[in-house]
Write a structure and sequence with these properties.
Number of helices: 19
Distance between the termini: 38 Å
Radius of gyration: 27 Å
Mean pLDDT: 94
Low-confidence stretches: none
Largest sheet: 6 strands, parallel
Strand order of the largest sheet: 3-2-1-4-5-6
Number of strands: 13
Length: 432
Amino acid sequence: MKISVFGLGYVGAVTAGCLSRRGHEIIGVDVQPKKVEAFNRGEPPIIEPGLEELFRHAKAKGLLRATVNSEEAIQQSEVSIICVGTPTSESGALDLTYVREVVGQIAKILKRTSKKHAMLFRSTMMPGATAQIANEFLLDLEENGQVEIICYPEFLREGTAVDDFENPSLVVVGTREGQPPSAHLLPLIGEKASVLPLKAAEMVKHTSNAFHATKVTFANELGRLMKAMEIDAQAVMALLCQDTKLNLSAYYMKPGNPFGGSCLPKDVRALCHEGRDHGLSLPLLENLLPSNRIHFQTLLDLILRLESADVTILGLSFKQNTDDLRESAMVEIAQELWRKNYNLKIFDTALNLAGLIGTNKREIDIKMPHLASLLKTDLSAAIGPKGLIVAAQKCVSFSEIAKVVTPQHIILDVNGWRELRQLPSRYEGFCW
């Protein structure tokens, strides 16, 4: 393919070098003459392991050059990859000035021609920005089939960017309707790319970076605490990372129920207390419980906004397949609804009131002594002919719930039970 790369900074240079190795003909575009001159000498404008060799080979094969002339680049390419910077503005938002300038230039050039062109946005932008800019400058070109818009976020680490490009841990593309891009672009993007709507693809990039920042901060906060406690933090964290079933896995990475139970709230409080005893500020740890509380309040507010006098909670415990009610968000939700005089019913096959003992029994005796009158053992009786169903746990099979749900029901899915979308009732996802 003949590809123009707009923006010859870090992402643009690596993208250009790696694509040239695949045999694509690259023409770089930048407003800085020194970057263009470096490209034309076959020299990368940044220091990155492996990139100098790629540039040298690409230059020798005539696959790499650059220009300051946008029209020259567009006329001689079939695909443009937008890699210009999106720096932080004074407000903290991303400054899209450079993206808008480049897209505006490309749009003017394309409107003077009839050639078809694909535009891949690698510049990091907040969800909605790609569509907004495309609507402003390219909508008529899209509608007549002349331009194809694709969000193509990058996940390159400085120092290993070439290897990250060639052996990506994640490849994501976004399109207007979440449909695969044109077939001729697949060799460029990769056959295994995950295809999402534009906003979701944009958000994957920000979610990844926020998660990385959270992990670094988590390790550093625990490191400070362990140093004060005379514990080898490197040894502890190395062992933590050996657990790929829970610690480094997808297990807890599912938006939905607030956390609860006998361990997480208690141990977070204990760590924060220990930090205070050592005179340490641990903002990430100290805000876990407040954040969880905000999440709970968001769930309660959503239930109240759905304005159904009849509410059924499926699953009262803090997680599936247990009768542990300690610090369960659903116990507190049930309390709030009962106090507000909702017609409340609870269904949970894992819950046996007669079998509750110890702390678990005390939790209910103190918080919900009236639980027995709310708990139903028959699903049909619990759900009734209408009302709101708060699906907190998969405590019943989909086939069973499908038999009793009607169009007069509203289902609030708190647990990511995607099959519930198939039911004839109104469906509302908690975080989706």
